[in-house]
Amino acid sequence: MSIAAAINEGLHVTAIVSLSGSLYAQFFLFGSGLSETDVRRLLTSASVHAFSLLLIASSGMLRLYVFEPEMLRLLESSVFMLKLQIFIVFVLCSLYPAFTFYRWRKELKQGQPSMISYRQHTAVLWCIRFELAALMLIPMLAAFARVGFGISS
Length: 153
What we know:
The structure is a single chain. By secondary structure, the chain is mostly helical. It has a single domain (3-146), classed as A middle domain of Talin 1 (Up-down Bundle). It is 78% helix and 0% strand. α1 (3-29) packs antiparallel against α2 (36-67) and α1 packs antiparallel against α4. The two termini are 28 Å apart. The relative contact order is 0.15. The mean pLDDT is 88.
């Protein structure tokens, strides 16, 4: 393994840890009575979340196509494909909370309290819960795919 591959793998793992931290921060900060400080923290957490997703996707593709091309056999694995599909749904699901939080920036600059309906609040919480569940499932699927599960002989 080259130093560049090791750095890439380290960035991949670091991004996963950062993503989990930002998700837990969003889960615990997102309550019914949000102060201005809480909204600012949610916006910071959403930024870390977005950056982590980009870093995970880019370092994962680099790992697969550049640093470890022998791993291309994983593309034949149904378990690996399931992992990729869950990751894509994960990314799409993360858009709703992010856009909800970013809409509050204008209100925050004007000094107005952030308003959200009960329905939106519930939807954002369920998206975050799904993301937390998927975050536990995706590494398990990656490990199963790496040892050969889902590859038909």
